[in-house]
Each structure stands twice: as structure tokens, then as C-alpha cells.
């Protein structure tokens, strides 16, 4: 049979009905047929070779040996077709406008093929062979349509117009694919045929590059097959794929998000993996991935929504991306997914919304979209712990935005939910900070009824460092009136704050010193601090003039409140307070000179008393 080949052309899978599974470890191609015939090409014509059943009997395990014409032979064949096709097209008497466009595109083919064939690896890469076969098929179709038009044998004018438009699109695809093939870099690899088994790394890498190139060339069916194969490879060895992923591959994946449903779902699966890896964030965003991801969250299948939400979660980390997500209408579908999604979708969308809430100017918009109610609901009943953590952070951000949002959080029952959330064994910062932000929005009696202070004492003793700092800050804010200070003194919080003065965290030390400086005016608390063996010494240690010590001004205020006691002044002097205060006085730290004068005067009196 002259010049016959078995076709393994994934690029033309819609008419060959073949699905290829690349096995990078064995170097083999496994072919699964779902139609009746094996197709062969004989100088551009197709013929059936037999039934599927007979083929399966002869080929166990669905493996075949692929026979090919060489790329040079296909190139010669295409070059021989072009003059005759152009001649026939120019003689067509009707549809002249469409044929003029088609002729113009056919005339561009020789230049593209010249660039392709001049590559040193032209004859070694199967993609070149497949590209030439596709061009030959398109030219044959052009010849057939030209003959039908010339003989007026077409079924109808509208049908022929549609066929000519489709032909024009195929020529565009051929021209584009030819240029993309040159630019992908895959031709730079002397790719070994995939059916040659090899245990070396080179065939695997070459095969992967070819697979990635298929995302950019061919029709949608070919790209769908490439997506399926790439997903399999990523599941087996993601680390091998990532270094090979170029911007062109990322751009192709983003474009596939606008394809048919099954292609979109495969593409978003890969994009979610890329986004989670963090390797391609800038490329994904610059290639326009966010708008189609938002549309998938809004109207995709359950699986597509989940993968899109995972990708958005990762990409929304930066403020610029968060703004773009909101600008493309992403807030509403993400909130809806929080309500209706499964555990993974819910957690991913909650994390994305948490990231969006981190942008100050978007918080009011979130409130208008119903984020407060959803956050409180998920804080109470989120399926995963991570989802509840995200919502605590969201409430922290929303409570910092405006009084109207704080009032909404209170009216929607957010305070009891936040208090219940911090009752756990290791309270975290976001919920405690949200409560601190809400303190002015709730009256003292309500806070007392809700046991705020005992819960803050629990946080001071058992919470994370961030939570402890937020709790001390909340106590400072709560104790703004004499009655509130008295309640703090009765709650057992003071000893925990004295201990917090020794924290390794500068923020914790500062918050504790500020709270103590505000509370020391209350008689019971002042006596408790004087009697505590560590309160004065810990505060003196915070008089250090080091610029990194932000607690020094509060330490001065706290010590000033305790300096009415001779015993406390003696402890201050004995631990070097005078030396510290001289430096702070030179730095003009508020109250340092007054406290210094008080301690020096007391020291002088003590000297004369001893004499």
C-alpha cells in the first residue's frame, strides 16, 4: 500500500476518534478506539481498514506500531497541493468575498512552512508531521469546496457560507499553530518517538514538552486530550512538570477556561494546581485568569467551582488581585459558595473572602453583599476548622472598618459567637481582636453578662502570643471608666498581665504595659500591683531606652502610678530605674523627668535619714 500510515494524530482526534494516553515511564502510547474504523491516509485520502472488533482481536492490550510518512514527504505533498488549490479557488465564480479571504490565507502557508521546515529538528519531532497532515487535510477540504462552488452542487447558500467560514477558521488555526509550534521551544528537543521505551529522563522531559505544546496547537478535542494526559502526569509527578511550564503554556490554559464545559473543568483543575504551587501567579493574572475563574465559581459545575475557588484563594493573597476579583463581581458568587458548597469549596471561598476583607476599601462592599451574616454563620457552623478561622479573620477585618459594620456584627449575634469561639484550648488572635474592636459598641453591663473578662483572662493564660496581645489591648479598652476598672480588678486579669510584661513579644509587653498604666489609677488594682513581687521589677525592665522597646512610655506611666509607695520606690531604685530614666529624660519620653525627680528626691531623703 503506497505511502499508507496508521494515524495517531491527537490534533485531529475529532475525525480519527483516537484517545492517546502518554506513559512517560514506559515511553509507550496506548491507543483506545471508540469508533468502528481505523483510518489510514493515502496521499491525503481516507479509507476504512476494518471493524473495531477485528482490530481488537489482532491487537491485544490496544497497542499498535505506528508507521509514518516522513515530515519531508508530507512537506513535499503540501507544497504540491497549494498551487492546484489556489488555481481552483481563484476560478470560483460565487462567494467571491469569502474565497478572496481564503486565498489570502492559503498564500501565507508556504512562508509558515518554510519557517517550520528550516528548524534543525524539523524531521525529528512528530508535532511537525502532525501539523503538515492537518494542513494537507485543510487544503483537500478547500479543493472539495471550490469544486462544489464551481459546479453549483452545494446544498444551499447558507450552508455553503457556513462551510466556507469554517474553512477560513481552520486555515487560521493552521497558520497560528505553525507559528506557535516554532515558538514553543519543543522543536529544540530532538524528541524520541514516544513508542520507543527508555528509562532515561530525556524522553520523559521531551514527551512532557510535547504534551505542553499540544495545549497551544490544534482544535479543542486535541487540547482536551492533552489536558487529560497532563492531569495524569501531574498526579504522578507534579515536580517534574512545574519547571517546564512556560508562560505560553499558562496562557493556553487560561484561554481554555472559555471552552466547552468538559475542557473548562480540565483546565481549571490544572490551573488550581498551578495556583497552589505559587510558581505561576504573575503569569496567571497577567494572562487574564481571574474573570473566567469568577464565572466558574458563579456558574460552573460543583467540581469546577471548587477548583476555581481554590485558585482564587491563592491568587487573592495580594491586594491588587483581591481588588480585581471584587471588580469582576467575585464577591457575590464566593459568598454564595460559602453557603452552598461542600467542605473544601466552603473553606476555599471563605479563605478568598478573608483575603478580600484584608483590603480596607473593599470591606464596606463586603458588608453590603451580606458578608457579616455569612461570617457569623460559618464561625458557628463551618464544616472545617480552617473555615471558621477564616471567618474569624474576616470579622476582625470588618469590625475595623466602620461603626455601621460593627453595629451589624453586634445585631447579627456576632459577639456571643466570637466569645464561644475563644473558649477553645488555644485561642487565636483574630477573634480576640474582633472582640476588642467591638467593645465600644456594646455597653458594660452586656459585656459583664457575657463573661467577657473571665474569657479574656483565659486568653491571657492560654492563647497564642497574638491573642494575648489582643486580650491585653481589649482589657485596656474596656477599662475606660472607674467602674470598668473595678470589674477588671475583680476578674483576675491583673496577675496575667503582669506576667505578660515578661513576654518575648514586644507587642505583648507593650499591650500589657499600656493596660497596666491605664488601670493603676484604680485603688484595688494599685494595691494588687504593689503587693505583686514582679510588677515593679518587670516595669523597670521595660524602661530600656532601646528604640525597639515600644513599651517604655507605658512603663513610665505605670511606675508613676506606683511611686506613691516608699517600698515600690525602693524597688525601682534598686533595679536601676534612675539610670534608665536619665536616658529617657534626655529622649524626652513623657513623664520620665517627673518620675526621675521623684525617685531622686526619695533617695536623698533616705540618705539624710540614715545619717
Explain how this protein is built.
The protein has 611 residues and is mainly alpha-helical. Among the domains are: 4-62, no CATH class; 533-611, no CATH class. 68% of the residues lie in helices and 4% in strands. It has helices at residues 13-16, 52-58, 71-90, 96-117, 126-150, 157-183, 201-213, 220-241, 247-256, 261-277, 281-286, 290-299, 302-315, 319-327, 331-340, 343-357, 363-368, 371-381, 385-399, 403-411, 414-421, 429-438, 444-449, 452-462, 465-478, 482-491, 493-500, 506-519, 523-531, 535-541, 552-562, 566-574, 577-586, 592-610; strands spanning 4-6, 18-23, 28-33, 39-42, 45-48. A three-stranded antiparallel β-sheet has the order 1-4-5, with no helix packed on it. Helix 5 (126-150) runs antiparallel to helix 6 and helix 8 (220-241) packs parallel to helix 10. 45% of the residues are buried. Mean pLDDT is 84; it is low at 1-68 and 189-200.
In short:
The chain has 611 residues and is mostly helical. Among the domains are: 4-62, no CATH class; 533-611, no CATH class.
Order of strands in the sheet with most strands? 1-4-5
- Structural category is mainly alpha
- Rough outline: elongated
Q: Tell me the distance between the termini.
A: 126 Å
Largest sheet: 3 strands, antiparallel
> Could you list the spans in which at least 5 consecutive residues all have pLDDT below 50?
1-68, 189-200
Mean pLDDT metric: 84
Number of helices: 34
Strand content: under 5%
> Rounded to an integer, what's the Rg over CA atoms?
37 Å
Fraction of residues in helix: 55-70%
How many runs of DSSP E, i.e. beta strands? 5
Keywords: Repeat
InterPro entries: ARM-like, ARM-type_fold, Armadillo, DUF7032
Pfam families: Arm, DUF7032
Domain DUF7032: 77-186
Amino acid at each position: 500500500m503506497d505511502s499508507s500510515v496508521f494515524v495517531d494524530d491527537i490534533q485531529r482526534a475529532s475525525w480519527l476518534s483516537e484517545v492517546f494516553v502518554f506513559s512517560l515511564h514506559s515511553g509507550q502510547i496506548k491507543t483506545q478506539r471508540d469508533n468502528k474504523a481505523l483510518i489510514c491516509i493515502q496521499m491525503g485520502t481516507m479509507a476504512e481498514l476494518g471493524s473495531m472488533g477485528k482490530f481488537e482481536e489482532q491487537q491485544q492490550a490496544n497497542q499498535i506500531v505506528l508507521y509514518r510518512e516522513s515530515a519531508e514527504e508530507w512537506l513535499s505533498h503540501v507544497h504540491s497541493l497549494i498551487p492546484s488549490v489556489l488555481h481552483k479557488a481563484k476560478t470560483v465564480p460565487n462567494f467571491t468575498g469569502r474565497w478572496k479571504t481564503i486565498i489570502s490565507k492559503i498564500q501565507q502557508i508556504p512562508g509558515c512552512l518554510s519557517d517550520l521546515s528550516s528548524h534543525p529538528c524539523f524531521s525529528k519531532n512528530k508535532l511537525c508531521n502532525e501539523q503538515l497532515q492537518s494542513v494537507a487535510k485543510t487544503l483537500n477540504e478547500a479543493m472539495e469546496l471550490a469544486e462544489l462552488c464551481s459546479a453549483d452542487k452545494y446544498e444551499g447558500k447558507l450552508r455553503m457560507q457556513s462551510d466556507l467560514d469554517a474553512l477560513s477558521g481552520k486555515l487560521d488555526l493552521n497558520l497560528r499553530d505553525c507559528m506557535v509550534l516554532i515558538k514553543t521551544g519543543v522543536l529544540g528537543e530532538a524528541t524520541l518517538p514516544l513508542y520507543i521505551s527508555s528509562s532515561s529522563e530525556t524522553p520523559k522531559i521531551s514527551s512532557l514538552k510535547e504534551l505542553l505544546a499540544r495545549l497551544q496547537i490544534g482544535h479543542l478535542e486535541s487540547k482536551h486530550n492533552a489536558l487529560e494526559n497532563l492531569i495524569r502526569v501531574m498526579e504522578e509527578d507534579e515536580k517534574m512538570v512545574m519547571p517546564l511550564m512556560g508562560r505560553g503554556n499558562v496562557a493556553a490554559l487560561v484561554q481554555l477556561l472559555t471552552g466547552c464545559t468538559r475542557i473548562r473543568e480540565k483546565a481549571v483543575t490544572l490551573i488550581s494546581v498551578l495556583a497552589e504551587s505559587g510558581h505561576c501567579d504573575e503569569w496567571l493574572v497577567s494572562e487574564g485568569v481571574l474573570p473566567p475563574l469568577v464565572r466558574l465559581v458563579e456558574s460552573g459545575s460543583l467540581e469546577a467551582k471548587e477548583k476555581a475557588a481554590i485558585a482564587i484563594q491563592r491568587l487573592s493573597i495580594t491586594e491588587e488581585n483581591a481588588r480585581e476579583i471584587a471588580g469582576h463581581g467575585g464577591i457575590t458568587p464566593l459568598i454564595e459558595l460559602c453557603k452552598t458548597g461542600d467542605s473544601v469549596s466552603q473553606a476555599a471561598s471563605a479563605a478568598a473572602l478573608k483575603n478580600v476583607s484584608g483590603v480596607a476599601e473593599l470591606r464596606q462592599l463586603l458588608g453590603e453583599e451580606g458578608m457579616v451574616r455569612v461570617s457569623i454563620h460559618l464561625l458557628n457552623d463551618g464544616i472545617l476548622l480552617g473555615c471558621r478561622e477564616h471567618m474569624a479573620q474576616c470579622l476582625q477585618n470588618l469590625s475595623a472598618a466602620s461603626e455601621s459594620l460593627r453595629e451589624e456584627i453586634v445585631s447579627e449575634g456576632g459577639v456571643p459567637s466570637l466569645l464561644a469561639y475563644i473558649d477553645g484550648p488555644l485561642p487565636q488572635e483574630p477573634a480576640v481582636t474582633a472582640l476588642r474592636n467591638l467593645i465600644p459598641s456594646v455597653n458594660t453591663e452586656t459585656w459583664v453578662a457575657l463573661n467577657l473578662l473571665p474569657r479574656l483572662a483565659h486568653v491571657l493564660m492560654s492563647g497564642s502570643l497574638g491573642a494575648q496581645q489582643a486580650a491585653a489591648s481589649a482589657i485596656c479598652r474596656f477599662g475606660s471608666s472607674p467602674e470598668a476598672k473595678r470589674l477588671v480588678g475583680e476578674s483576675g486579669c491583673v496577675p496575667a498581665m503582669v506576667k505578660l510584661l515578661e513576654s518575648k513579644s514586644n507587642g505583648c509587653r507593650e499591650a500589657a504595659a499600656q493596660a497596666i498604666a491605664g488601670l493603676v489609677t484604680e485603688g484595688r488594682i494599685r494595691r494588687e500591683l504593689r503587693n505583686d513581687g514582679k510588677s515593679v521589677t518587670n516595669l523597670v525592665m521595660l524602661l530600656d531606652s532601646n528604640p525597639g522597646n515600644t513599651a517604655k512610655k507605658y512603663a513610665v506611666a505605670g511606675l508613676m502610678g506606683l511611686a506613691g509607695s516608699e517600698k515600690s520606690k525602693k524597688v525601682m531604685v534598686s533595679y536601676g530605674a534612675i539610670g534608665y530614666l536619665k536616658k529617657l529624660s534626655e529622649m524626652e519620653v513623657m513623664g520620665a523627668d517627673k518620675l526621675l525627680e521623684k525617685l531622686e528626691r526619695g533617695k536623698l531623703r533616705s540618705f539624710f535619714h540614715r545619717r
